């Protein structure tokens, strides 16, 4: 039963969906504060390259190396996001332009590739995140491979979804965050620090994109390739819309998109001829459809983007 | 305490000082990075300058590299004039290339005089249509064009890959080496676009068309009623509506023009440069995204897009020919990114006056 085609798709949905989930969750937090960051791809790659070099060069026991790589990837992503935060929040540069610049600067033909060259990343990462067979339960039918045979990164992503959901909708700071994204001038009048809230959440978004990056460099594609995230950062952006800026729905979307990205391989391996290119384009087509449906007002207003998304907050311009 | 005051007037000299200052700032940041990673910054810059602008051969290669950037840059600038962000230059470029490859192959037997104009027009048309769809969503439903045009890039990329790798389409080479490695069918010599010049220096047709388009766009936006209406819509859609301007139609027209320019870039990629549909190459080049950088650096002015595209084209050309052990890949993208960050940040100085004043708690604005 665990070898059936449905199981194969579900298992790879989780495997390939995990980096999308991290990056999209981070982007949800940033966008909830009103900052659109199109630089996800660049932040993921910066996390990936830093995680990769630490995994290969740090001389320490495996678990410690992985912990350091994990933290360093978060820092790398957050620092990359800091550039975007400084440009858009302090200097009020257009968020679209700044985000694109971030991807060009850090992306597959930019700084991440330059660093990989300078650091001579050639061999597979020495330490990688392996699948953990929790409690020896992986042979249980259906739930075994899905819930008990994942990497630590996947287990942590489930925790992250729960924490983000709780933070956004059940805590006072989460409420403050949402108010900053909906109406910064009102939030400012209430005494909230709009600038600080936006800085912090943009950087958390970058940190999570950095984790999404090591899902690639230390798990999915352990040998460094320039631009190894292959456009997943853009899918993460689509996912945020697809999941209506809600962590749980984003998780569903991440696994759906993860399933699609592996479906063609699985189908081909089993002798079904489906052009993989057409399946590849499905996530993007679905995102456009969702976006049109939401913006056309054919759905509830509460599902739309934060009102102040993409706009700079200019206190003196009130 | 640092305070920001919006400028009421923008001094003319800033319009020149800021871009030039940004280029210097970016070069200094880039030099620091190169030195930190253990290379000689001055020597690296010297080699970039030589390979980009050193002699006629370098200039020819630089103009070739600048051609797609000129057209995608114009596409971004055209849309931004109305406050629209066309991030889809990438996809419109690809669709233009698909259309031009198709018509170039189909009309090849009729010769260049027939086929080349049709390639140009079909490229423009394909790019226009690919931009008009998100444009329609935007004007009809208010759907955010940033994300839809972005998604359309990937749909176009998948479509082009499908034509070459996933099907036995008309634009795919099915004979010879094409049996082993999927690749595009090469257009016949008759329909390769002409280049103009002499003495070793030549300019591709696409670049000349791009320069004409830049001037036409400038005239359209400066001198015509339509251009004036676009400016009004950009400043205030409400006011435009009261003045009787058809805002949705104007928006759709702007997106169509923008997409057409990117599509022309795609056609030039077939006619001038690659001579066949090459989805992988298009995917890696990122012309559409760099075009937005070009346009932003040119401060969205169509005429200024020409020199900026030559500058970034030179950088790309040098990066391609120098790539190797002591000239790591990724350096060019990093320099481009730094350049744009400095330029858009410098833009801030033209909009705000930075005042360092005594602490006045009531009116302070935090600048990080």
- Counting DSSP H or I runs of 4 or more residues, the number of helices of chain A is 13
Element-level helix/strand string of chain B: EHHHHHHEEHHHHHHHHE
State the separation between the terminal residues of chain B, measured CA to CA: 11 Å
Oligomer: heterodimer
The mean pLDDT of chain B is 88
Low-confidence stretches of chain B: none
CATH topology of chain A: ABC transporter involved in vitamin B12 uptake, BtuC
Termini separation of chain A: 63 Å
GO cellular component, one term (chain B): plasma membrane
Main location (chain B): membrane
Transmembrane segments (chain B): 12-36, 56-80, 92-110, 116-137, 149-171, 191-221, 286-315, 327-350
Subcellular location (chain B): Cell membrane
Give the helices and strands, then pairings.
The complex is a heterodimer of chains A (318) and B (368).
Chain A (H helix, E strand, L loop, with lengths): L4 H28 L7 H18 L4 H29 L4 H12 L4 H8 L12 E3 L9 H5 L1 E3 H19 L1 H11 L1 H6 L4 H27 L11 H11 L4 H23 L6 H20 L23
Antiparallel strand pairs in A: 1-2
Helix pairs in contact in A: 1-7, 1-10, 1-11, 1-12, 2-3, 2-4, 2-5, 2-10, 2-11, 3-4, 3-10, 7-8, 11-12, 11-13, 12-13
Chain B lengths: L1 E5 L5 H25 L4 H13 L2 H25 L8 H19 L4 H30 L3 H22 L28 E4 L2 E4 H19 L1 H11 L1 H6 L4 H28 L4 H7 L1 H11 L4 H21 L8 H21 E5 L12
Antiparallel strand pairs in B: 1-4, 2-3
Protein name (chain A): ABC transporter permease
Subcellular location (chain A): Cell membrane
Organism (chain A): Propioniciclava tarda
Q: Can you give me a brief rundown of this structure?
A:
The complex is a heterodimer of chains A (318) and B (368). Chain A is built from 13 helices and 2 strands.
């Amino acid at each position: 039963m665990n070898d059936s085609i449905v199981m194969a798709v579900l298992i790879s949905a989780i495997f390939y969906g995990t980096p999308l989930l991290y990056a999209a969750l981070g982007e949800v937090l940033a966008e909830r504060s009103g900052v659109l960051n199109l630089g996800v791809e660049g932040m993921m790659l910066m996390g990936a390259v830093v995680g990769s070099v630490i995994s290969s060069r740090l001389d320490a026991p495996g678990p410690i190396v992985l912990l350091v790589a994990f933290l360093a990837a978060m820092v790398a992503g957050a620092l990359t996001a800091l550039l975007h935060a400084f440009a858009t929040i302090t200097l009020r540069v257009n968020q679209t332009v700044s985000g694109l610049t971030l991807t060009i600067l850090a992306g597959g033909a930019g700084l991440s590739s330059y660093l990989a060259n300078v650091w001579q990343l050639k061999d597979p990462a020495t330490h990688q995140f392996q699948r953990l067979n929790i409690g020896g339960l992986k042979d249980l039918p259906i739930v075994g491979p899905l819930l008990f045979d994942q990497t630590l990164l996947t287990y942590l992503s489930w925790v992250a979804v729960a924490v983000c959901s709780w933070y956004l909708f059940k805590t006072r700071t989460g409420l403050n965050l949402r108010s900053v994204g909906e109406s910064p001038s009102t939030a400012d009048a209430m005494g909230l620090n709009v600038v600080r809230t936006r800085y912090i959440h943009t950087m958390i978004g970058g940190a999570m994109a950095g984790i999404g990056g090591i899902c690639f460099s230390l798990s999915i594609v352990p040998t460094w390739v320039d631009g190894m995230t292959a456009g997943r950062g853009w899918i993460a952006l689509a996912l945020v819309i697809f999941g209506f800026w809600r962590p749980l729905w984003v998780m569903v979307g991440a696994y759906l998109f993860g399933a699609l990205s592996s479906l063609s391989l699985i189908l081909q391996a089993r002798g079904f001829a489906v052009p993989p290119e057409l399946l590849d384009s499905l996530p993007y087509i679905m995102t456009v459809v969702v976006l049109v449906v939401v913006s056309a007002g054919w759905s509830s207003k509460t599902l739309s983007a934060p009102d102040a998304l993409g706009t700079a907050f200019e206190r003196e311009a009130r | 305490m640092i305070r920001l005051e919006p400028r009421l007037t923008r001094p003319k000299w800033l319009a020149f000082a800021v871009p030039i200052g940004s280029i210097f700032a970016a070069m200094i940041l880039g030099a620091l990075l190169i030195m930190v990673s253990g290379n000689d910054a001055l020597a690296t810059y010297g080699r970039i300058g030589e390979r980009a602008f050193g002699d006629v051969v370098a200039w020819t290669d630089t103009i070739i590299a600048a051609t797609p950037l000129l057209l995608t840059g114009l596409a971004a600038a055209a849309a931004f004039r109305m406050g629209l962000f066309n991030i889809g230059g990438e996809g419109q470029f690809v669709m233009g290339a698909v259309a031009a490859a198709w018509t170039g192959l189909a009309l090849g037997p009729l010769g260049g005089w027939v086929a080349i104009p049709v390639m140009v027009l079909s490229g423009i048309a394909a790019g226009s249509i690919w931009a008009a769809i998100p444009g329609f969503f935007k004007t009809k439903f208010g759907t955010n064009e940033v994300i839809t045009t972005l998604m359309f890039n990937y749909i176009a990329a998948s479509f082009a890959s499908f034509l070459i790798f996933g099907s036995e389409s008309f634009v795919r080479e099915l004979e010879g080496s094409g049996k082993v490695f999927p690749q595009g069918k090469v257009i016949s010599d008759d329909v390769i676009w002409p280049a103009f010049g002499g003495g070793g220096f030549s300019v591709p047709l696409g670049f000349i068309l791009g320069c004409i388009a830049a001037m036409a766009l400038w005239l359209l936006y400066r001198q015509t009623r339509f251009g004036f209406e676009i400016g009004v819509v950009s400043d205030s859609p409400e006011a435009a509506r009261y003045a009787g301007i058809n805002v949705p139609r104007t928006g759709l027209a702007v997106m169509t023009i923008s997409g057409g320019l990117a599509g022309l870039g795609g056609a030039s990629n077939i006619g001038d440069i690659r001579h066949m549909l090459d989805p992988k190459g298009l995917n890696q080049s990122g012309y559409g995204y760099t075009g937005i950088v070009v346009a932003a650096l040119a401060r969205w002015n169509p005429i200024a897009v020409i020199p900026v595209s030559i500058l970034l084209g030179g950088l790309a050309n040098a990066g391609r020919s120098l790539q190797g052990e002591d000239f790591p890949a990724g350096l060019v993208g990093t320099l481009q990114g730094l350049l744009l960050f400095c330029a858009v940040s410098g833009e801030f100085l033209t909009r705000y006056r930075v005042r360092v004043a005594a602490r006045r708690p009531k009116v302070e604005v935090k600048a990080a």
